[in-house]
Structure formats: C-alpha cells, structure tokens
Design brief:
single chain; Laminin; seven-stranded antiparallel β-sheet; 11% helix; globular
Length: 969
C-alpha cells in the first residue's frame, strides 16, 4: 500500500508539471537519451523562446577526489561547453562553462558536502535566456546554495553542424553512480522543484524544503540533543581523568627519609655553578640560555627552527646558540650569531641587494650600454642612445665609422690605434675570444674559467663552479672530494671559499665539534676528549668518564633520555628530550596518553572516522583503520588503498587532485582541491593562467611596471615563498624551497629473517647529507617531497676498505614495489642465499626499474642483487659497459635528469672533473614521477654528500634528437 501511494504521488507530480497554466513545460530524461541536446543547444531553445532551463540530477558519491558528474562538450576537439565538478575533500562544487566571449568561466560553491555515500538531489536553474537578468542558481537537497549573475553560452546558441554537441556522464562504480539526470524547459522553479519532492518555504521565494522532512527533522533534533548531552558528559569525565593523571605523584609507601639531605656535588646539575644548596638538599637553577631541560639535564635548543637567517643563507646550530653564514651572492650584510630562542625570534639577519650597476665597470657590462640591477644580481641591456653595437662587439658612437672600439674596451689590443681594423687579424682574435666567454644570453661571462654561466629566469646571470671545483663561481678552486668546499682557501668571502676541513672525505656541512679545524668526518677524536671516536660513546661531546646510566649506545653527556634505553635518540619535537622519555612527544601541549596523534601536532584532535587515530596522522582519515597498516609503504593505509592510478603519477585516483593528468607533486597553489596541472586559474584571482602575468600569486591589477611580462607582485620570487628564484630549488612551487632530507621514510626491502640488520641512517648539513653506517639488508631512506620533472645530484663516497657491495640512489619512488634505482657494485659476487633463485651481481653502475609483484621480501631482494631482468620484479634499463666497480674512499658525483611526462631518463657519473659514465637517453614510463632517496644493500659507511634537487619540467634537447633518430629508424 505504501509503495502504491508513493507511485501515485510521483505520477501526480508529473501531471502537475505538464498541466501548468501556460502548458509550456517539457521534461527530457538525459540518462535514457541525450539526442535532444544538439537540437536544443544549437538554436532550439532560442526558437522556442525559452527563458528558463533546469538541470536535475540525483547521485551517490563516495570518492573524495575531484569528480566530474557530467559535462556537455564538443566531441570533435574535446573542448568543454559546460561541466559540473565536485571535490569531496573540501566540499566544493565548481561549474566550468564557455562564456559568450569564447573564454572559460568558473563558478565555485563552497561548503557543499556531497561525497558522503548518501543520495543527493541537485537542481541547476538557468534563467534570463531571453529576458531579465541572466543568472545561475544551485540548489542541493531542496536548499538554495548560491546564485551567480552569469549564464553559460551553452544555453544560448552553440555552433551549428553535426557532431558538435555531446553529453558525458560520470562512470558508474560500486560507490559512485548518477541515478537521474533530466533537462526541463519553460517551467517555474516551484513546479520543477516538485520533481525532487521540494516545495517553497512559507514567506520565502527561493529557499526550498522537502515535503517529507518535517517528521524526520523533529526526530533528528531530539537525537542531536541527546548526543550533545552524552558528549558533554564524556568531556567532563575526560577532563577529570586528565587532571588526576597530571596531579599524580610517585607513591612508594616508604616512611619519611631521615637521612641527611644531599648537598651539591660534582655532576648533580648540568653545570656546577647551577647547584644551589637548600635546607632539604639542593636544587638546580634553570638551564642557561640556549638550552632546555630541568637544570639537571639540559639539551641544546635548535634556534635555526625559527629561521633567523636571510632566506637561502645556511643557519648553523651550535651548542649553545646559532650562526648565520654570509649573505648570498649579490647581497651585502653582516653574519648573525646569537644564543637562545628569544634572540632567534627577535633578531633576523639583514641582507641588502647590491646594485652592481653602480660600480666603476658598469657592472661588468660593455661601456656605453645599459646595466639593469635585479634582486641579487644584474643584467646587461642595449647600447645607450647615440651608440650602436651589442654586448659582444661593444657599443661605439653612432657617428664613428672606425672599427677601433671592437672589444669591450677601447680596442687597444688590436695594435692599430685608430685604424679601421678591417685588415687587423688581432681584432678578429679579440672577437673570437669574447665570443667564447659569453653567457647564453650574449652578456659578458664574468665567471671563473672553471665555472658555468647560468642565465636565470629573469635574465640575470649567476656563476656555478664545475664539478670537481668549488667556490663562489666567480672564483673556483680544486675540490678533490666534490663536497662544494675547495682544497685551499680562495680569494673571496663566501662560505664556499673557505678551505675544506676534510679534503679527502666529503662533508658538505663542515661540522667540527671541537673547533680544531679538522672536520668531524675525518677527525679521529672529534670531541678532543682523548678517546677515539670508535670507542667513544659520545663522539661529538666531551665525556672522559664515559658514564652511561641506561646502558644504551649513548653516554649520558649526549643522551636525550639518560635513564631510558633509546639508542635511536628519536626526538620528534626537537626539544632535547627523546621520545622515549617525553610525555608530549610532538610538543602540541597534549600528553601522549591523551593524544590521538602522538608524533604529529594536532591540538584540534579531529578524528573523522572515529578510529582513535587523529586525521593529522591517519593513513585513512575517512575509513577506520586503527592499526594503520601500510604494507606497500606508500603512506596510504591498506584499508583505503585501491592502487588504481590512472595517470601513473603515484597517487591513486581517490586521492589525486588531477586523476588523469601527471602531477606527482600534487601542487595546489590556491588550495581549491584542483591541482595546478589541471586548474586553469592556479592562484584563483579570476585571471586564467595563460593570460596571468603572476600565475601563482593573486594580482587582479596585473601591474607590470617594466613591461617585461612578469607582474610586479611576483618579480624575482615567482611563487612568493620569500626565497628568491635564483636560489629557490623550485621557483614555481612555494612548498619546496631548499633541498632537505631531514624528514624521511625508512623502507626495509627484505624484512624477513635475521641474516643482516636494517640500515642506520644519519642526516647532516640540514638535510643535504646522509650517512649509512651498517652492513645491512637492502633498504631505502626516502624523502617526503614528490616530484614530476626533477634534476637530482649528489656526491657518492664509500668511506671504508672492508666491503664491496651495493650503494646508490632512487627516484620516482611511489611505493616499496615501484621505483627506479641507480646502484653500483664494486666486484662480481653471487648472493649467499640461493633461495628463491641464484642471483649474480656484476660490477658497475646499473639503472633498474622496480615493478615488483611480491613487494619487499626474498624475491625482491635477490632481484635487486641480480644484474639483469627478473620477471615480475625488476628490469635492467641500462648498465655501464665498462663493468668497473667503485673505488674505496673515492668521491663520485652523479647528475640525474628525469622527465616523467615523456619518460626521459639520463644519468651521468663524474670522478673528480672527468665524466666516467653516461647512460645516454633512456626512455621508460613505468613510474610517472615520485619521491627521491638513497639506497644501500650490504654496504657500510656510505656517504651521500652535497645533495641537490631542483624542479625541472623542461624537456632536454637530446630527447628530440633521440626521438627523431628512433622515429626515422
């Protein structure tokens, strides 16, 4: 009887629609057939004099990723006329539509929760087609969301002709389905709303409400009130529990001690002078400035975390205090040093731009030409009025017909004085010499002969010493260990001009704990306490007594948990107190016992799926998974891991902000849920990217004072991350500014068995140097920053003579079964475990694509060891034909280029200044981008130094040459 009544109600609704006063209403079911669209949109609506058009749709949506419910488009060129997009992650609806002027328009509606797995009714009302104000109105579940004063061209008149208009609807899946899609013409909003069981509210002209909602709403109000009362009770109970826990004191039941109170003795406080005797014993004064702790134990605080140094200047944390190095090239200013958090917060290093053009030599530009000062540099321009020539031939007076001024100076080197120079061989020699010393933009090359002139994106130039040389670029000296520090002091003031304190072992951070001029890496007694490093339980802190209260690997003098065994010394919040003994590991003010993200600050404690794990650290924030299992190490929990990745960029479709366009970085500048790669207005300033002179910085005025095509708002700092483009590793990504591997994920590739141990990673030089100390199972240290196109370089050095196994680096890491690895073996060797198959390693450099069916374990382990292809595990893409292994205690520099959009890979290795291996162009599309890291397998004491990465999507010239050759063949 109920079903029959509902059917009758639906029938009556349709009858009412078709029996309106003007009898103009027409309903088209687009799920059944969309054949009506071309006729209607190519002039039919105008011919019928229709003023109002409605689109009604009903759908279930579970996916949180950006999803297109339907689109009206031109199938000939796949261009859009109108599409309806939803982003469940940020509860946003976006309408993209072709405007009457031929440009694309966008209307965004916020706070529209649709991706919850429940059915939702959506009504779009387009009015003003023939008269009145053109507008679009969005209704969701009988509620008006917003009205936009604009109208898509699709509902006026589209181009005529066959195959010009088509409809595409969201594919149906188990969780996502469009169950209704209708087009309604020539009706009132009141009548059309009844198709979705909606009526106008009393006294309102636009708000709608459901006929069937009155009873359920009252019930819902009652349930919410009960829930609120229960939540209030739980909050009070939790608060009482927290108070009890915080006020607890140890109770040993012992009688009051009558022993004489302890007085100040050696070592009772952090410093002897801090001990204060009292009637009941003693107390320790607060830790000195620059330290944190209880007075008994004080740990150095890291002032550098507050960024006191000028952007791009290295901050060196000392104990106590900090020091900022010299200002970058092109700036002047003093070095800064200080002690304590207050000082670091209130004092900032000041570096002022140097105006090179004010110098006597015109900034190095040709005399009588313009010199343009830029932020941190300069660039040379045209000849001044009254002069002709260029930066290569020089600028001479327009009225002077002589050729005497053919060089950058007066031409005195020609030997002919004021002669015409037409027959002077020496003048030609000068021009040839000048041509060989020009930068790519034609400016005079001011760099050292062992440096490269780099033309920056703003046209200015900078100098970079070649591989095997170090300095500031304008002066370069020999660099034996290739760690960016010269073997001898150079005649310049930059940090990279000082002599290397470890000439034969790379140490790009130049750490020197005892300040004896010998770097820690090559100092047998780095803390000068008379105990050699290999026997010292605090090799960087003096501790002659070698006291070790908890018996771990760290003496009390350098142990961040003196009474708790914690050899890893992990300290999440960098407060000097190790996690093992810190009751608030992440420093967010919540005790661990009450914190649902113990190692990630989250004062809000949000937990959408109520699994006890806060959203800030939940690998499946919308699906309960309290155990947080992540078998494939891709940072997505197994419970919500679909491994469906349409574009192959390492992000599954449900979490990819551009599911069909490669964008491993997932950069979303305006945080609208749509990645920049598929967003036509990255900064959401209303100006499309192709016309925007500051694509990543909102600037509606488009001010450009010098008319160079770059807006004033982003000149010199394109992404406005406060790091100038010249030293920014990713000038078009505000989230990545400097190379930093301090935060990394450890991945063990053979977790079974106990034949060997896991790698032990040590990170130095603010994340630009990594050391692995153990003879270990295969493992990775992977940074968290993902890249599309990238250049990755570093110095590789095995600092031992006792082993001969694998070391290398990885790129394109997507999970523990999918990544590229460049690995180098010293000698030929058969792996000592012949199960599951015999694996033979050959000496030399190898480039492999890992696509493992099994993931970490014995199959992947042996496949990595083996030189060659292993079915369903590893493919060998390239091997150095020299079959030469790495040498003990010799530094090598690698340079990798990866352009996943076309599959381009090229890797080069240098020994000193010499190129020793080059893969040439390798094409592979197994991984379309991913993260970077380092790799080891059974090799100890590996150093990866002077690490550098840089975002780069520019396709190298040799790719086109390679492609042309292979197409022709």
């Amino acid at each position: 009887m109920v079903i029959r009544t509902q059917c009758l109600l639906i029938l009556l609704t349709f009858l009412k629609l078709f029996c309106t006063v003007d009898a103009q209403g027409i309903v088209y079911d687009l799920l059944v057939s969309a054949e009506c669209l071309p006729d209607l949109l190519q002039g039919g609506l105008k011919a019928k004099n229709v003023n109002d058009v409605f689109i009604l749709t009903t759908f279930h949506l579970q996916s949180q990723a950006p999803t297109r419910a339907f689109r009206i488009y031109n199938p000939t060129d796949n261009s859009d006329y109108f599409d309806f997009n939803m982003n469940g992650k940020i509860n946003k609806v976006t309408l993209r539509y072709l405007k009457s002027n031929g440009k694309m328009g966008t209307a965004s509606f916020l706070n529209v929760p649709l991706a919850d797995g429940h059915p939702h009714n959506v009504m779009l009302h387009f009015s003003g087609l023939t008269h009145g104000t053109p507008s679009m109105a969005l209704y969701v579940d009988c509620r008006l969301v917003q009205i936009v004063q604009d109208l898509p061209a699709a509902f006026k008149t589209l181009p005529s002709g066959p195959n010009k208009v088509a409809l595409k609807i969201m594919p149906t899946t188990a969780q996502d389905i469009v169950s209704d899609l209708k087009l309604v013409l020539g009706e009132s909003v009141e009548n059309v709303a009844e198709l979705q069981d909606c009526t106008l509210q009393h006294g309102e002209s636009l708000g709608l409400t459901s006929k069937l909602e009155a009873g359920p709403v009252l019930e819902l109000v009652r349930m919410v009130q009960e829930l609120k009362e229960k939540m209030d009770q739980q909050i009070r109970e939790t608060a009482n529990m927290r108070k009890i826990i915080m006020e607890c004191v140890p109770c040993d039941g012992a009688k009051e001690k009558t022993d004489t109170a302890a007085k100040c003795g050696p070592g009772v406080c952090f410093q002897q002078s801090m001990c204060i005797e009292t009637e009941r014993g003693f107390q320790c004064a607060p830790c000195p400035e620059g330290y944190t702790g209880d007075g008994v134990h004080c740990a150095d605080v890291n002032e550098c975390q507050f960024n006191p140094c000028f952007p791009g200047v290295r901050c060196i944390n000392t104990a106590p205090g900090f020091r900022c190095q010299s200002c970058p090239r092109g700036y002047s200013g003093a070095e800064l040093q200080g002690v304590g958090l207050t000082f670091a917060k209130t004092h900032k290093q000041v570096c002022n731009d140097i105006d090179e053009c004010q110098g006597l030599d015109n900034g190095g530009c040709t005399p009588n030409s313009y010199c343009h000062n830029t932020v941190g540099s300069f660039r040379c321009g045209d000849c001044k009025p009254g002069y002709t020539g260029d930066q290569i031939r020089g600028c001479r007076s327009s009225g002077d017909g002589s050729g005497s001024d053919t060089g950058t100076g007066s031409g005195s080197g020609s030997g002919s004085g004021s002669g015409s120079g037409s027959g002077s061989g020496s003048g030609t020699a000068i021009s040839a010499a000048l041509s060989s010393r020009q930068c790519g933009n034609g400016q005079t090359n001011p760099c050292d002969v062992n440096a490269e002139c780099v033309v920056e994106r703003d046209g200015s130039i900078s100098c970079v010493c070649n591989i095997g040389w170090a300095g500031n670029g304008y002066v370069c000296g020999k660099d034996t260990d290739i760690d960016a520090h010269p073997d001898r002091t150079l005649q310049c003031q930059d940090a990279n001009c000082k002599k290397d304190n470890c000439m034969f072992v790379p140490n790009s951070g130049q750490e020197d704990a005892d300040n004896d001029g010998i770097g820690d890496t090559c100092d047998e007694d780095a803390d000068s306490d008379g105990i050699l490093n290999e026997k010292d339980n605090c090799w960087l802190v003096k501790n002659v007594d070698q006291k070790n209260s908890d018996g771990d690997l760290n003496g009390d003098a350098c142990d961040n948990c003196i009474n708790v065994d914690n050899s890893d010394q992990r300290d999440t919040d960098n407060d000097g107190l190790g996690d093992a003994c810190d009751d608030d590991m992440d420093g967010d003010g919540l005790k661990n016992i009450l914190d649902n993200c113990q190692r990630v600050p989250n004062t809000d404690q949000l937990d959408k799926d109520n699994d006890g794990v806060g959203d800030a650290c939940d690998s499946c924030p919308e699906v309960p998974n309290p155990n947080q299992s992540d078998v494939d190490n891709d940072l997505v929990g197994d419970t919500c891991d679909t491994n469906i990745d349409s574009d192959g960029d390492g992000h599954q479709n449900t979490k990819d902000n551009c599911p069909t366009i490669i964008n491993s970085s997932q950069l979303d500048t305006d945080k609208d849920g749509l990645g920049d790669e598929c967003d036509d207005d990255d900064d959401n300033d209303g100006i499309l990217d192709e016309q925007d002179n500051c694509r990543l910085v909102p600037n509606k005025d488009q001010a450009d004072e010098n008319n160079d095509g770059v807006g004033d708002a982003c000149t010199g700092d394109f992404d406005l991350d406060h790091v100038i483009d010249r030293i920014d590793t990713c000038p078009e990504n505000a989230e990545v500014t400097l190379t930093d591997f301090r935060a990394y994920q450890t991945v063990v590739l053979d977790p079974e068995g106990e034949a060997q141990i896991d790698p032990n990673w040590v990170v130095l030089n603010q994340g630009m140097e990594i050391i692995q100390t153990m003879n270990s199972d295969p493992g990775l240290a992977v940074g968290y920053t993902a890249f599309s196109g990238v250049d990755f370089e570093g110095t590789f050095h095995v600092n031992t003579v006792t082993d001969d196994d694998y070391a290398g680096f990885i790129f394109g890491y997507q999970d523990s079964s999918s990544f590229y690895v460049v690995m180098w073996k010293q000698t030929e060797q058969t792996y000592w475990q012949a199960v599951p198959f015999r694996a033979v390693a050959e000496p030399g450099i190898q480039l492999k694509a890992v696509k493992s069916k099994t993931g970490p374990g014995e199959f992947l382990r042996n496949s990595l060891w083996h030189t060659g292809d292993t079915k369903e595990q590893v493919r060998l893409l390239w091997k150095d034909p020299r079959n030469v292994g790495w040498k003990d205690k010799v530094s090598y520099r690698w340079n990798l280029q990866h352009r996943p959009q076309v599959g381009y890979i090229r890797v080069r290795f240098y020994e000193g200044t010499s190129l020793v291996a080059d893969s040439g162009v390798v094409i592979d599309t197994s991984m379309r981008g991913g993260r970077l890291g380092v790799f080891c397998f059974s090799q100890e004491n590996i150093i990866w130094s002077n690490l550098r990465y840089r975002c780069n999507d520019t396709i190298p010239e040799d790719y086109e040459e390679y492609r042309a050759q292979h197409l022709s063949s």
